[in-house]
UniProtKB/TrEMBL annotation, chain A:
InterPro entries: IorB_Oxidoreductase (IPR052198), Pyrv/ketoisovalerate_OxRed_cat (IPR019752), Pyrv_flavodox_OxRed_cen (IPR002869)
Domain Pyruvate/ketoisovalerate oxidoreductase catalytic: 13-190
Protein's UniProt name: Ferredoxin oxidoreductase, beta subunit
Entry annotated with the keyword Oxidoreductase: yes
Gene: oorB
GO molecular function ontology, one term from the record: 2-oxoglutarate synthase activity
Enzyme Commission number: 1.2.7.3
One Pfam family linked to the record: POR
Domain of life: Bacteria
SUPFAM superfamilies per the UniProt record, alphabetical: Pyruvate-ferredoxin oxidoreductase, PFOR, domain III
Automatic annotation (TrEMBL), chain B:
EC number annotated for this UniProt entry: 1.2.7.8
The protein's role, per its UniProt record: Catalyzes the ferredoxin-dependent oxidative decarboxylation of arylpyruvates.
Keyword Transmembrane (UniProt): no
Cofactor: [4Fe-4S] cluster
Binding site residues for [4Fe-4S] cluster 1: C541, C544, C547, C581
Enzymatic reactions: indole-3-pyruvate + 2 oxidized [2Fe-2S]-[ferredoxin] + CoA = (indol-3-yl)acetyl-CoA + 2 reduced [2Fe-2S]-[ferredoxin] + CO2 + H(+)
Domain 4Fe-4S ferredoxin-type: residue ranges: 562-591
Textual note on the cofactor: Binds 2 [4Fe-4S] clusters. In this family the first cluster has a non-standard and varying [4Fe-4S] binding motif CX(2)CX(2)CX(4-5)CP.
UniProt source species: Heliorestis convoluta
Protein name per its UniProtKB record: Indolepyruvate oxidoreductase subunit IorA
Xref: Pfam families: POR_N (PF01855), TPP_enzyme_C (PF02775)
Length: 194, 591
């Protein structure tokens, strides 16, 4: 709604969506905004689908985002982008990690992983960025930094100086992983701006 | 300084700032992180109790001894703790006593959806409901003051969206922690009938005084805007209301028992159309209607699940457009009121037991043996899902064992094909008493304790069987086998949960035995494994897909190559699949 920016992170348990939302909130706080962050976990570590919602702006009331009201959807896995695409605003942006993690019903042959995900997303959403975030993170030196690669992409879509993001990384990432995460972040950022 | 905190973290911070000295809980989503965060403050003695009833009793004891005390649990935990709670309402407190109930509208991770606000009038204790993290912290202070002023435990009721949402909180300095001097006061703390009868009268007087307090408290406030429609609300619903109807007048209730009747009547007189917006039951609505006030609430809003901004705009907006066109909702709002269609169908991604989970093999064997399974609450409840589908019942913590007794008594034929499965933490919580019943009432039940040495489902909390406390001190470890024997179980077997052949043999023997037996199947939770053993490999796969029946997320089938593939980073090398492949295609890595 007016004056509030709604960002939705979706992914699979263990992919680091929660850390990503904390980095983003830190950035928002450094701008002096009000922030609300909502996550439903409990079974998050057990491979289920994970959603975190970040809302920022002058003043934020509800901790949750309405369907059709998301400005930027960051999907850590493409099937999750598919599942949550309806949350986007008509002119909203989607950042989609081209990674495939099969849910159990698919693994045991009880369901099929859709083949047409990226085509479908491209044809129904105006603004989609598909990114091989896992590869970029691996190149940067740590496959686990996939979430931070995606933050780099997000940064390229938001009007906030890069230093703020760097500071947020410093505040939220453990010191011994900082260098590799900074590299991963820039890999995402450069991918988006090139 | 301001920090972004969840409601749970904010309550813990409040405990620290406002002088709480003792805190106890049993972990349960969405309440778990309250104690986890309190344990970060060494100034506060904090502990996991084996169940909520015990936690409540620890809290009552600490309060009698003079400490400010906090007890936390999820909604269903209050059912367990209700017994001491209702009498603690009589005896009152010495140090302030807070019971946090974290309810779960929408059942994100719960077996039911009860509205624990009803406990407040039922037990005759005051109740506070914060609307964000800042208030969650502030209300710890308010609750302690109410508790000590009015001599009562206080219910601090939150919901998942308060517990797990982060918002800004102003941090303050901790106050001095003091323990009130102990004096014996048997008339107050020994609830024999003669004493309790006096306190019973006091309860009514206290409720009346609290009602006056509620009228005057700043926790119940009015925001006067348009007079055409007003909304009475509490908890997280207040945030939805503010966003959905910025033009509406609002009476926000922070104290929801006792409610401020006069304030409500005054507010009702000021506005033309009056709504009550609350999640779950018509708790406020019914009380307001009892005042003779005309309000609209559950006629428009569902008595289950969570509310949302769009739901309010849609349902209340539609009503307003008809009833009061002069305050019709704006176009911006009506955009949101349109249903959003889900354009794609994605296969579901349910939570699953982790790769290397020690429960998997046991369930596989149970399924092979076609046993009836009386189940319980924990990670192993996930064994209900395909492909294992290894659970017939799951009612509440500890019910697996006692329900098995009932099933067997009702239908003796089941005795030869029934097992109760229960986790180690759940067994500590309330399995022990069920096991006594098994022995005492001479059933032939077979109980399998799935011992992964931790409370896994809620994120790895310690319990009396783990040898560690919440404050990270070493402590004695309960020996399950010795415990079962001391309760009178003669047949106790301990097996390696990954050794399927032995697991199978032992289960068959024990189920056939005409007396109670306990099988302890042991291996640590896969998420605790630090140095991973090597992943298994798959070579010369015969494509029979039998190994897929264990539902390990590290195994999948490659349709083109006609072979099973092992996802190396996921596989923990637990060897369960190796034992299932009849062709020896799955092998130890490197072998
Ligand atoms: S957390 Fe532990 S107990 Fe729970 S499913 Fe995973 S491995 Fe099993
Ligand atoms: S050894 Fe087999 S069952 Fe165990 S984690 Fe690896 S793939 Fe899964």
């Amino acid at each position: 709604m007016s004056g509030v920016l709604n960002i939705l992170f979706v992914g699979v348990g263990g992919q680091g969506a929660i850390l990503a939302s904390k980095i983003l909130s830190h950035v928002a706080l450094s701008k002096g905004w009000d922030v609300k962050l909502s996550e439903i976990h409990g079974m998050a570590q057990r491979g289920g689908s994970v959603v975190t919602q970040v809302r920022m702006g002058e003043i934020v009331f509800s901790p949750t985002i309405e369907a059709g009201d998301v400005h930027i959807l960051v999907a850590f896995e493409k099937l999750e982008a598919y599942r949550w695409a309806h949350m986007l605003k008509k002119d909203g942006k989607a950042i989609v990690n081209d990674q495939r993690i099969e849910p159990l019903p698919v693994l045991i042959g009880a369901a099929k992983y859709p083949d047409s995900i990226l085509d479908d997303l491209n044809s129904s959403i105006q603004n989609v960025t598909v990114i091989p975030a896992l590869d970029l993170a691996t190149e940067a030196g740590n496959a686990k930094a996939t979430n931070v690669v995606l933050m780099g992409i997000l940064a390229a879509h938001m009007d906030i100086p890069l230093e703020r993001w760097q500071e947020a990384l410093e505040a939220k990432v453990p010191a011994k992983l900082l260098e590799v995460n900074k590299k991963a972040f820039m890999a995402g950022y450069n991918f988006a701006v090139k | 300084m301001k920090a972004l905190l969840t409601g749970n973290e904010a309550i813990a911070r409040g405990a620290y700032e406002y002088g709480i000295s003792v805190a106890a809980a049993y972990p349960g989503t969405p309440s778990t992180e309250i104690l986890e965060n309190i344990s970060k403050y060494p100034e506060i003695y904090s502990q996991w109790s084996p169940n909520e009833k015990v936690a409540m009793e620890v809290g009552v004891g600490a309060s009698i001894a003079g400490a400010r005390t906090l007890v936390a649990m999820k909604h269903v935990g209050v059912n367990v703790a209700a017994d001491p709670l209702f009498t603690a309402a009589y005896s009152g407190v010495r140090g302030g006593l807070i019971l946090v109930s974290a309810d779960d509208p929408g059942m994100h991770s719960s077996q039911n959806e009860q509205d624990n606000r009803h406990y407040a009038p039922f037990a005759k204790i005051p109740m506070l409901e914060p609307s964000d993290s800042q208030e969650a912290k502030d209300m710890v202070k308010l609750a302690l003051e109410i508790s000590e002023t009015f001599d009562t435990p206080v219910l601090l009721r939150i919901t998942t969206r308060i517990a797990h949402s982060q918002s800004l909180v102003e941090l303050g300095e901790p106050m001095e922690r003091e323990i009130k001097p102990y004096t014996k006061d048997a008339k107050k703390f020994v609830m024999i009938p003669a004493h309790a009868r006096t306190r019973r009268v006091f309860l009514e007087e206290r409720d009346a005084q609290l009602a006056t307090f509620s009228e005057q408290s700043a926790a119940n406030f009015v925001e006067m805007r348009q007079q055409s429609f007003g909304i009475i609300t509490s908890g997280v619903s207040y945030q939805y209301v503010k966003e959905a109807f910025p033009q509406a007048s609002v009476l926000r209730l922070g104290i929801t028992h006792p409610i401020p009747k006069q304030k409500i009547m005054d507010f009702a007189n000021e506005v033309d159309t009056l709504f009550v917006v609350e999640e779950l039951e018509p708790y406020l609505e019914n009380q307001i209607k009892a005042l003779g006030i005309k309000v609209v609430g559950k006629d428009l809003l569902p008595p289950y699940g969570e509310l949302s901004v769009s739901l309010l705009q849609k349902n209340l907006g539609a009503y307003l457009n008809v009833a009061n066109p002069s305050v019709a909702v704006t176009t911006e709002q009506s955009n949101i009121m349109q249903e959003v269609q889900q354009p794609f169908t994605a296969p579901v991604r349910p939570p699953v037991m982790c790769p290397g989970c020690p429960h998997r093999g046991v369930f596989y064997v149970i399924k092979q043996l076609k046993l009836v399974v009386s189940g319980d609450i924990g990670c192993y409840t996930l064994g209900t899902m395909p492909p294992l589908e290894a659970m017939d019942t799951c009612i509440c913590m500890g019910a697996s064992i006692s329900a098995a007794v009932g099933m067997e008594k009702a239908n003796p034929e089941l005795a030869g094909k029934l097992v109760a499965v229960i986790g180690d933490s759940t067994f500590m919580h309330s399995g022990v008493t069920g096991l006594m019943d098994v022995v005492y009432n001479k059933t032939a039940a077979t109980i399998i304790i799935l011992d992964n040495s931790i409370t896994a489902m809620t994120g790895h909390q310690y319990h009396p069987g783990t040898g560690k406390t919440l404050m990270n001190e070493d402590s004695p470890t309960v020996d399950f086998a010795a415990l079962a024997k001391s309760l009178g179980v003669r047949r106790v077997a301990e097996v390696d949960a990954f050794d399927l052949e032995t697991v199978k043999k032992v289960i068959q023997e024990e189920v056939a035995a005409p007396e109670p037996s306990v099988i302890i199947a042991r291996q640590p939770c896969a998420l605790m494994l630090k140095g991973q053993t090597e992943a298994v490999v798959c070579e010369d796969c015969k494509a029979c897909r039998v190994c897929l029946r264990i539902g390990c997320p590290a195994l999948s089938f490659d349709e083109e190559g006609k072979t099973v593939v092992v996802n190396k980073p996921l596989c923990t090398g637990c060897n369960v699949c190796i034992q299932i492949c009849k062709f020896g295609a799955l092998r130890k890595g490197g072998a």
